[in-house]
Specification:
Layout: H1 11-20, H2 22-33, E1 36-37, H3 38-45, H4 50-62, E2 66-71, E3 77-82, H5 84-118
Antiparallel strand pairs: 1-3, 2-3
Helix pairs in contact: 2-5
Protein backbone atom coordinates (compact mmCIF):
# COMPACT_ATOMS: atom_id res chain seq x y z
CA UNK A 1 0.00 0.00 0.00
CA UNK A 2 1.42 3.35 -1.04
CA UNK A 3 1.11 6.19 1.48
CA UNK A 4 0.32 9.55 -0.06
CA UNK A 5 2.45 12.38 1.33
CA UNK A 6 0.16 15.14 2.50
CA UNK A 7 0.47 18.24 4.64
CA UNK A 8 -0.79 16.16 7.56
CA UNK A 9 1.73 13.32 7.09
CA UNK A 10 4.80 15.41 6.27
CA UNK A 11 4.24 19.16 6.81
CA UNK A 12 7.87 20.29 6.70
CA UNK A 13 8.36 18.63 3.32
CA UNK A 14 5.61 20.72 1.71
CA UNK A 15 6.98 23.94 3.19
CA UNK A 16 10.44 23.01 1.91
CA UNK A 17 8.97 22.40 -1.54
CA UNK A 18 7.28 25.81 -1.50
CA UNK A 19 10.42 27.69 -0.42
CA UNK A 20 12.78 25.84 -2.76
CA UNK A 21 10.55 25.65 -5.82
CA UNK A 22 11.82 27.38 -8.94
CA UNK A 23 9.53 30.37 -8.52
CA UNK A 24 9.53 30.33 -4.72
CA UNK A 25 13.29 30.90 -4.62
CA UNK A 26 13.15 33.71 -7.17
CA UNK A 27 10.22 35.43 -5.43
CA UNK A 28 11.92 35.30 -2.05
CA UNK A 29 15.16 36.70 -3.49
CA UNK A 30 13.35 39.51 -5.33
CA UNK A 31 11.25 40.49 -2.32
CA UNK A 32 14.30 40.40 -0.08
CA UNK A 33 15.55 43.47 -1.97
CA UNK A 34 12.31 45.45 -1.73
CA UNK A 35 8.51 45.47 -1.92
CA UNK A 36 7.14 44.83 -5.42
CA UNK A 37 3.86 45.16 -7.20
CA UNK A 38 2.73 42.08 -9.14
CA UNK A 39 3.82 43.36 -12.55
CA UNK A 40 7.19 44.55 -11.19
CA UNK A 41 7.79 41.17 -9.62
CA UNK A 42 6.91 39.40 -12.86
CA UNK A 43 9.37 41.57 -14.80
CA UNK A 44 12.09 41.09 -12.17
CA UNK A 45 11.74 37.31 -12.20
CA UNK A 46 11.16 36.91 -15.94
CA UNK A 47 9.72 33.92 -17.82
CA UNK A 48 7.02 33.22 -15.25
CA UNK A 49 3.37 33.12 -16.28
CA UNK A 50 0.87 35.30 -14.46
CA UNK A 51 -0.94 32.18 -13.28
CA UNK A 52 2.19 30.55 -11.85
CA UNK A 53 3.33 33.77 -10.18
CA UNK A 54 -0.10 34.28 -8.62
CA UNK A 55 -0.24 30.67 -7.40
CA UNK A 56 3.26 30.80 -5.92
CA UNK A 57 2.61 34.13 -4.21
CA UNK A 58 -0.62 32.76 -2.75
CA UNK A 59 1.18 29.66 -1.47
CA UNK A 60 3.98 31.71 0.08
CA UNK A 61 1.40 34.04 1.63
CA UNK A 62 -0.48 31.07 3.10
CA UNK A 63 2.76 29.72 4.56
CA UNK A 64 3.45 33.08 6.21
CA UNK A 65 6.41 34.15 4.06
CA UNK A 66 4.78 36.85 1.93
CA UNK A 67 2.52 39.74 2.91
CA UNK A 68 -0.05 40.93 0.39
CA UNK A 69 -1.11 44.54 0.93
CA UNK A 70 -4.14 45.47 -1.21
CA UNK A 71 -5.19 49.11 -1.15
CA UNK A 72 -8.81 49.92 -1.98
CA UNK A 73 -8.14 52.30 -4.86
CA UNK A 74 -9.00 52.25 -8.54
CA UNK A 75 -7.16 50.66 -10.22
CA UNK A 76 -6.31 48.24 -7.41
CA UNK A 77 -2.86 48.67 -5.90
CA UNK A 78 -1.34 45.51 -4.44
CA UNK A 79 2.13 45.32 -2.93
CA UNK A 80 4.00 42.16 -1.99
CA UNK A 81 6.67 42.08 0.70
CA UNK A 82 8.32 39.58 3.00
CA UNK A 83 7.14 38.91 6.51
CA UNK A 84 9.79 38.42 9.20
CA UNK A 85 9.50 34.66 8.59
CA UNK A 86 9.87 35.25 4.84
CA UNK A 87 12.95 37.42 5.40
CA UNK A 88 14.48 34.59 7.42
CA UNK A 89 13.70 32.08 4.65
CA UNK A 90 15.09 34.45 1.99
CA UNK A 91 18.38 34.69 3.89
CA UNK A 92 18.69 30.91 3.82
CA UNK A 93 17.73 30.69 0.15
CA UNK A 94 20.20 33.46 -0.73
CA UNK A 95 23.02 31.47 0.89
CA UNK A 96 22.17 28.49 -1.31
CA UNK A 97 21.92 30.71 -4.41
CA UNK A 98 25.31 32.30 -3.69
CA UNK A 99 26.89 28.88 -3.13
CA UNK A 100 25.39 27.66 -6.41
CA UNK A 101 26.83 30.64 -8.26
CA UNK A 102 30.30 30.10 -6.72
CA UNK A 103 30.31 26.37 -7.45
CA UNK A 104 28.79 26.52 -10.95
CA UNK A 105 32.16 25.92 -12.67
CA UNK A 106 32.59 22.68 -10.68
CA UNK A 107 29.07 21.60 -11.64
CA UNK A 108 29.75 22.36 -15.31
CA UNK A 109 32.98 20.35 -15.18
CA UNK A 110 31.16 17.43 -13.57
CA UNK A 111 28.47 17.56 -16.27
CA UNK A 112 31.06 17.55 -19.05
CA UNK A 113 32.87 14.59 -17.48
CA UNK A 114 29.59 12.72 -17.07
CA UNK A 115 28.51 13.43 -20.65
CA UNK A 116 31.92 12.34 -22.01
CA UNK A 117 31.79 9.09 -20.06
CA UNK A 118 28.21 8.38 -21.18
CA UNK A 119 28.65 9.61 -24.76
Amino acid sequence: MKVRVTEETCPYRLVLEHVTSRWGVLILLALEKRTHRFSELRREIGRVSEKMLAQTLQTLERDGFVRRDARPVIPPHVDYSLTPLGREAATQVRSLAEWTERRLPAVQTAREEYDSAKG
